[in-house]
Structure formats: structure tokens, C-alpha cells
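fyi for ur records
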Amino acid sequence: MFAVMRIENDDCRSDYRRKMRPKCEFICKYCQRRFTKPYNLMIHERTHKSPEITYSCEVCGKYFKQRDNLRQHRVQPRGAKQRNTGLSWLRSYTDPEEHGIVYFMDDENTYSVDLFSEMSKTQPGRVSVWPVGLVGTLMVERPILNDQKTEVIGFNSVWRPERPFPIDMAAFAISKNLLFQHPEVRFSYNAHLGYQETEFLMNLTTLRELQPLATESEDVLVWHTRTQKTKLTGEDGLRKNGRRSDEGLEV
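which gave:
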């Protein structure tokens, strides 16, 4: 069954809309702002509380006041659009025959000037790698080399170690000509959380073709620093078993 209500004129329609409009029944106890839904009130009142309730991304450590903002952050690949714009410019306006090194920097990192002279040793057609401090819940995330210290055979990562390349964006540089040899390679907008680096590198190289730098991957020349306190839950787990990610290193 249904009913039809006849509205005689515009004034009647306005009165009817006002009567049918939901009342603001939920009031903030801090500033008396009114809301029509309890969920909106709950989110609003969090902005008044101290200490502030925050939610952090387990990959990059960024904090959010609302859980919904964290969810949105997780599904959006961080920096993919900017990096792809840079790759497009490089392929369009630079000489493919000229040797160069491509490195993706981040304003949240701290760099030693020695890192840039070190990455200049990257050989044509290769991807070079090195340790990064304070990342992946460890003091140091680093390549593991063979006995001869000439070849990368793995990484010491504890966060999603099953990734083919379980490293941070700050941990590698690319010979420019390699990007021209693979003009279709870009950062994926559909990569799962923490898989941006892996999916990109899988289309350029293999684990055994990586070139280890930074004194056989023993020097830490870049740190994933932020204004928030660094979380080292992975490091805590190693120490419980008598191990350290920075064994023999000065971080």
C-alpha cells in the first residue's frame, strides 16, 4: 500500500519539508554543535579530546585522526602519480644514450651526502641497493649478500618478507638506460599495500641482478625519519631471540 499527500502551494511545501526534516538530536558536549547522526557526533567529539586518538599506517607510519582517512590512505598508492609523471618527463626529454641514475626521494627521509656519490657507482643496465635505517619496524632493513659479498641473495625484512623485493623506496637507484629499455614500466595504481617497490622492480630486474653498494651493504646512508616516534616492533621481536637487524653496523 502507499499514500499520496497533496501539497497545495509552495508555502505549504516549505512547511512540509521543515516538518519532515530530521531534527538535530545529537549535541556535542564540548561545543554544543548539533548532528543528525550519532556517528558524526562521535567523530566530531574526538577532535576535542586529549590526548588525541590517532590511527597509524603500518607501512609509512603516517598518523590520521579518523579511521576512515586511514582506510582511504591504504587504498591509494602513495606517490605513484608523481613518480610516474617524473618517469614520463625523463623518457620524453632526456637522451636515452646518456648514462644517468634515477632515485626516488622522499621528504620524510634523512640523507647522507655520501649516498649520492655511492649511487653514482650504479652500473648501466642495473639496479643498485643498500641498507635503510629506521624502516619496516627495524633499526636497519638491508640486503643479504652471498659469502663473496658480490651478489644479493635476500633481505632481512620482517614486514611481509614474502615480497620478491621487500625493500623501501629509499633503498634503490636505477640506471636510466634500464628505464628506456622497458618503456612500459611504471608504478602501479592497483598495487597492494607495501607492494609498490616490488611490482615496479619485478618488471626491471631480478634479485640476483641487483648491484649491492654502500661498502657491501654495511653502511647506512639514508634513514626513514619522521616527526612521529619510530615504531620498532620487528626489532623488538628480533631482540627477544637474541638477534639485531643492525648487528655490526653503526646506525
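The chain is about 30% helix and 15% strand. thats all i got for now
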